[in-house]
Every structure is written in C-alpha cells, then in structure tokens.
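Backbone-to-sequence.
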C-alpha cells in the first residue's frame, strides 16, 4: 500500500514542488489586470462594450469551467474512497470511535466560534448603516428574490435527521447530496473495519484502484489550474468592476475582517491545541489556500488539501483521509461567518431590529445551515436566502450582495480549507497515543507481497 500511495501522490506532490502557488499568484495578478483592461466600466483604450465583454467573458471563463467540471466529475468517488480507505487503514474500531467523538464537538465548536466572531464584527462596525437601503432597493427593483433560487421548505427536525441516511445512494449522487454520501461512506468504512482486513481486502484493493484513477485525473486537472484561475479572476473583475466593490466597501471590509480574525484563531488553535509553530503551518498550507481562493470550491481543493496534510503537515494518513473529506462537507466556518455578517448587514440596511431571541435563533440557524452545505461555488448566497426568509428579513437584500459575492466566496472558501487543515493538525496530536499503535500495524497488513 505504501508503494501504491507513493505512485498515487506523485502527480500532486510534483505540482507542490513546482511551486503551484506561485503560478496561481501570477495567474491571479494577470487576471486582475486583464479584467480591468477589458472591463466596460474602465473606459480605457482596450475596454469592451457590454455586449463584447459578455461574449469574451464566456471564453475567459471556459478554462475555469473545464477545471471545476473535471474536479466535480471525480469528487464523489474521491470522497467515498478517501473516507472508506481512511477508516479501514485505521483498522482499530477504538481509533475510529476516538476520531468520531472528538471531531464532532471540534467542528461544532469552531463553527460556533466563527458565527460569534462574525456577529461581533457586524454589530461593532454596523456596515448596513453606511448605505441607503431605499436607494439599493430601487436599484434592484425590489426583486432580489428572483436572482436567487427559491429556498425549499424546511423539513422537520426528525425528518432532517432521518434524511442523513440515504435510502437511495444513486439519488444522493445524482442530486449531489454530499452529506448523505459522506454518511454512506462512513457506514461502509466502519463495516469493513469491523469485519477485518482479510475479508475486506478485495473491496479495499478495488477502492484503492478507484482512488488512484481519480487522483490521476485530478493531477491532469491541476495542471490546468493556473489558466483556470486567470480566466475566473478576469471574468469576475470584468463583470463587476470597482463600482460594486466601492458601494459595498463597509460590508466587504466587515466580512474580510471577520475572516481574518477567524484565520488568526486557527493559528492560535494550531499553537495551543496542535502544539505546532503557526508561522510554519501558514507557510505549508498556502498552496491549498490559494487554490481554494481562486476556485471558490472546497471540493476542488480537497485533493490538494489531502496531499498538503499528509506530505507537508505530516498528519497520519488515516486521520487526514477521514478529516479532510468530512471537513469539506460539514466544516464550513468561513461560510458560517459570512452568512451571519450578511444577515445582520441586510437587517441593518432595512432597519430590522433583531431581539435577543431572534439573534440567538440566527446563530443557531447559521451553525446548522452551514453543516452539510455543498462545497461548490456560490452556495452560500442560496443558504443565506433561506436564513433571511426564516428571520423575517427582506429577501430582496440578497440581490444587493450578488455583485460582490464572488470575491467574498473566494475568501471564505480559503478560510474553510484552512479550518479543515487546522482540524487535521489538532486531531493528529489529540490521537497521537492511539495513532502510533495504528500506524505500526499498517505495514504488516497493507504492504503488498513481493512475490
């Protein structure tokens, strides 16, 4: 298994060694410059007409769409195989129980921290008071809900709990319900661990092959990443321009300040709970952060996050392969912070005063809504519409945020990925005593025979 793993990670590891982060940084800079030059709002010598900008934006966005589609194509088999192989490589059911019982309260705790930080920033800065709500409502025609998919009616709590277990896994894969897919993989992985490696070895080898194929395809896609970043960034800048950014600068600043505070909190957690140097940690995770920032997708970043966790942070593979796929689905701290800031911003904008009970309900709702939200671009704005509808805050306010949602989506996704890698470091230390016994047993059962 160790030989196979070395072959499997060579594509991604080679990209890390070739300074993928530097290529992405250059692509981001070129994308911003190109977008500004071509934007109809700049009135420069190369600026395009709105019709021409719309046409060329589609072509600029093409590499990014291809990149994201390829990643999405393999993300389900990659998530399923990573979780199952992570659980089976652990072997010891006691190890699995310790991981599960510790990661669940950790994820809930950090998500709650993110929501409280967002609420603190939004209530301190009060970004909604810097803008005339009536002017923006008139500008959007008061029809903001038309720009956002209508939220589905919320199921009862018992139904939501029952729906965590997929009655039809094909339907879960068809609809992209990642939380159900994760639960399915957890069931399979735990069952394979219980029946033992001798009886589960044929299925394990099949899953290893599927994972190797998925990682090979991801390796091909990652070579397209700089071009994808250039196209996505230039498309955003060309479409949005600076007018939207300036008009909502107080709101943007509030979200970025909150995300920055959350990022600092992660460094503190790495230092206190993980017992590691936070500066060294920040330097090792930059590739994953940049890819998450440019693609706005935790799912697209998950393969690189796995490699960073195992190869650069030296996290035990069973822990990394369990925490990273699970975290990409349920650990959305950056998204939770953004949602509470956005909800309070819109409430301030339209003069809606929240009582203590409503504020508490907002915090609880955001924490619950962020768990299991799809790890794909733009999903935060849809979840926000659901939250606003339940809080009695005008849903038309969502349209105000659409112009700048892309840049904030990029920022919060980078923080989401950082949170997953932070969780890996913390779990790696918390489970150190059990981990040593588990890893010592792996080569004896998983190393292929030389014959």
């Amino acid at each position: 298994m160790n030989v196979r793993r070395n072959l499997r990670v060579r594509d991604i590891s080679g990209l890390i060694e070739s300074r993928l982060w530097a290529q992405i940084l250059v692509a981001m800079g070129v994308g911003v410059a190109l977008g500004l030059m071509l934007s109809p709002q700049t009135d420069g010598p190369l600026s395009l007409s709105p019709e021409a900008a719309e046409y060329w934006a589609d072509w600029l966005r093409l590499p990014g769409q291809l990149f994201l589609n390829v990643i999405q194509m393999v993300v389900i088999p990659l998530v399923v195989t990573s979780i199952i192989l992570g659980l089976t490589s652990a072997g010891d059911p006691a190890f699995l129980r310790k991981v599960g019982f510790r990661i669940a309260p950790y994820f809930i705790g950090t998500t709650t921290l993110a929501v409280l930080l967002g609420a603190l920033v939004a209530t301190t800065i009060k970004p909604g008071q810097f803008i005339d709500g009536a002017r923006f409502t008139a500008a959007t025609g008061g029809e903001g809900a038309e720009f956002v998919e209508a939220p589905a009616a919320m199921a009862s709590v018992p139904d939501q709990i029952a729906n965590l277990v997929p009655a039809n896994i094909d339907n879960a894969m068809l609809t992209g319900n990642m939380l159900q897919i994760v639960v399915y993989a957890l069931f399979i992985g735990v069952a394979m661990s219980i029946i033992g490696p001798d009886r589960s070895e044929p299925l394990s080898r099949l899953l290893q092959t599927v994972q190797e194929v998925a990682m090979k395809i991801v390796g091909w896609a990652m070579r397209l990443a700089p071009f994808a970043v250039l196209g996505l960034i230039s498309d955003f800048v060309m479409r949005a321009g600076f007018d939207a950014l300036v008009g909502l600068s107080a709101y943007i600043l509030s979200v970025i300040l909150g995300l920055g505070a959350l990022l600092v909190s992660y460094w503190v957690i790495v230092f206190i709970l993980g017992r590691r140097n936070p500066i060294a940690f920040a330097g090792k995770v930059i590739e994953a952060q940049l890819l998450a920032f440019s693609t706005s997708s935790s799912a697209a970043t998950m393969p690189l996050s796995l490699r960073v966790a195992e190869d650069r942070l030296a996290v035990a593979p069973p822990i990394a392969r369990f925490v990273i796929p699970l975290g990409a689905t349920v650990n959305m701290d950056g998204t939770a912070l953004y949602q509470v800031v956005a909800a309070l911003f819109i409430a301030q904008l339209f003069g809606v005063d929240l009582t203590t009970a409503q504020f508490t309900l907002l915090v609880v709702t955001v924490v619950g809504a962020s768990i299991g939200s799809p790890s794909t671009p733009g999903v935060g704005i849809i979840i926000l519409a659901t939250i606003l509808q339940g809080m009695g805050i005008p849903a038309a306010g969502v349209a105000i945020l659409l112009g700048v949602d892309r840049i904030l989506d990029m920022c919060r996704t980078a923080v989401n990925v950082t949170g997953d890698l932070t969780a890996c470091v913390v779990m790696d230390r918390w489970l150190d005593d059990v981990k040593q016994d588990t890893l010592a047993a792996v080569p004896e059962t998983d190393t292929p025979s030389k014959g």
